[in-house]
Design goal:
- By secondary structure, this protein is mainly β.
- The chain has one domain.
- 3% of the residues lie in helices and 44% in strands.
- The strands form two sheets. It has a seven-stranded antiparallel β-sheet, with no helix packed on it.
- It is elongated and about 60 Å long.
Length: 151
């Protein structure tokens, strides 16, 4: 199931807005009555944004919450090795832009503001708990800047 919504505090496209989206999937192996290991966990994304008049600049604070995967730990063990099942996490990002001209926009984002160590389930779902598992975590706080040219 997927759902998305946006609320604007004014009838114009300018000003403050709230956005939210969620994705939730449930899948079970009906023969063995266990959750499918290939199904991603619940995800909720929410943001508070602002867009200036004439779309000159804008910014948004975005929080992403991902739940713990529904996995049968015993069914995924192999020769006594424990599967690595990542926990739930919340990541906060701050993104913004400034229009330098009608065709050129400067973009800036600070991602994972609070330097959360987390793992995307799809990246590690076939891994077993091992000492170097940290190599597969997502990046800590990072900054990305760019220019967009529209023609």
């Amino acid at each position: 199931m997927e759902f998305g919504s946006e609320y604007r505090f004014s009838p114009d496209t300018d000003g403050f807005r709230l956005r939210a989206a969620l994705a939730w999937t449930v899948g079970d192996n009906l023969t063995e009555d266990i959750p499918l290991a290939s199904v991603d966990p619940f995800e909720l994304v929410a943001g508070l944004g602002y867009r200036a008049a004439e779309n000159r600049w804008g910014a948004e604070l975005v929080a992403t919450f991902v739940g713990e995967p529904r996995v049968d730990r015993e069914a995924n063990e192999l020769s006594g090795a424990e599967p690595f099942i990542p926990g739930a996490y919340t990541v906060v990002d701050l993104i913004g832009y400034y229009s330098l001209s009608p065709n050129l926009t400067f973009n800036l984002g600070i991602f994972n503001l609070f330097d959360q160590e987390y793992y995307r389930y799809a990246d590690v779902r076939n891994f077993f708990d091992r000492p170097d598992i940290g190599r597969f975590s997502q990046p800590g706080t990072s900054v990305r800047a760019g220019l967009s040219w529209r023609f």
